[in-house]
């Protein structure tokens, strides 16, 4: 309905399942309406872009953190009521019952609509991850300056 | 002082008491300055709009989640130092001592100033809630597309 | 590259170390590109502005909360994998190994670039803190109306 809808730029700093779902819900709605959408994943948000079984390299601390922080594009903890995994299981079942797409399903729908997926270069380095450990849906690895440029004239939504 | 202040659009994704208070603090300041304000509550943020004693319906999982997630417009957990309810009690006492309004008190002040309160339709469905379980202050039940339209030319603040 | 880059206004509501680092990372990138930057710290975000050993005054509840909430400009808990301090220690080591500046180091870099640091007046009062308990890098103590005025034509990033 809007001739040239405002670009949307979403910054995902959290690795909680809820934040990824909210990011994709907004992205799909915006892209379906013709808006350019950029998803920028930083810090724990990078979990959404990790291949299942991704391995952190580097110092022992990075490898230990990578081992603890085992979430990936296919499985994330809930920010509330995680309950050692029971909450995640329940939420997953509810979403399937309601035919709501998972994070990765939504991303598959979003990519053909032009949604751009960016991983934060600084966070990758701190976590000891390389591009190879990320899912193929990632379009680029960029830093804060790139985010600010995209954010310039966009609506910014921060999920932290 | 500003002839036509920029609209403010607040997205509340968290159910933590702090986020609801911040949302209302900003809403009141913006509305008092003449800005159109829309509050959009999604995911756990919906807790702020639930009647005390609201019941989730649907599958057993939804009812169980509703039972666990007992927060409502009159009582929310703190994101930090909840301490099984002690933190909430202490914060409530502090706020009364400082004569700071609660979430619901602020909402009562905000509504006559034209602040619009929207509940996210997708979240309601996942949680097994209907309009009847929400407080009367809710103006509409809408989805992501509606949020994006309101957000279009507004300042967006995300509380997640 | 941009003749007059858009101002950046960051609202920090969380006291988690990750949020402070993200705020400073964005601030430095924006200020280096010539954008006016304002950092607004509210609620638990005020922890980033507290002198080490800052003391809350007032009612016993405020002093107790101040005692529990011992984080300061030099030491904050991690939002994820805090693990009783082990996560913070590990993250601190990783950052030093990667030569990434701490929150306070970044702030020292940001101030000469014109980054403005504001503490929320309402939050200060609730927490029983005065200007004297804050680090000297704080430029002003202001309320929600001041935030909205700065946010007016800026890009807003919320870290909550």
The total count of strands of chain A amounts to 5
Overall mean pLDDT of chain A stands at 92
Q: What kind of oligomer do you see?
A: homotrimer
Major β-sheet annotation of chain A: 5 strands, parallel
- Biggest interface: A-B, 33 and 28 residues
| Estimated helix fraction of chain A | 25-40%
Order of helices and strands of chain A: EHEHHHEHEHE
Strand order in the largest sheet of chain A:
4-3-2-1-5
Would you give an account of this structure?
3 copies of one chain form a homotrimer. Chain A has helices at 17-32, 60-68, 86-97, 103-110, 121-127, 144-151, and strands at 8-12, 37-41, 116-120, 140-142, 155-159. Chain A is α/β, with parallel strands linked by helices and 160 residues long. A 5-stranded parallel β-sheet of chain A has the order 4-3-2-1-5, with helices on both faces. In chain A, α1 packs parallel to α4 (103-110). Chain A starts with 7 loop residues before the first strand and ends with a strand. Chains in contact: A-B, A-C, B-C.
């Amino acid at each position: 309905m809007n001739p040239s809808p405002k670009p949307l730029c979403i910054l995902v700093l959290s690795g909680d399942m809820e934040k990824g779902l909210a990011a994709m819900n907004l992205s799909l709605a915006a892209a379906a309406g013709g808006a350019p959408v950029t998803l920028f994943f930083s810090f724990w948000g990078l979990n959404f872009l990790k291949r299942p079984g991704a391995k952190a390299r580097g110092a022992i601390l990075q490898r230990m953190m990578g081992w603890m922080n085992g979430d990936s594009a296919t499985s994330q903890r809930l920010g509330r009521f995680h309950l050692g995994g029971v909450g995640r299981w329940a939420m997953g079942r509810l979403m399937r019952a309601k035919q709501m797409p998972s994070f990765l399903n939504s991303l598959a729908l979003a990519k053909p609509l032009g949604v751009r997926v960016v991983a934060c270069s600084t966070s990758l380095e701190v976590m000891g991850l390389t591009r190879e450990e990320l899912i193929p849906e990632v379009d680029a690895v960029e830093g804060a300056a790139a985010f600010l440029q995209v954010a310039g004239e966009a609506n910014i939504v921060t999920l932290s």
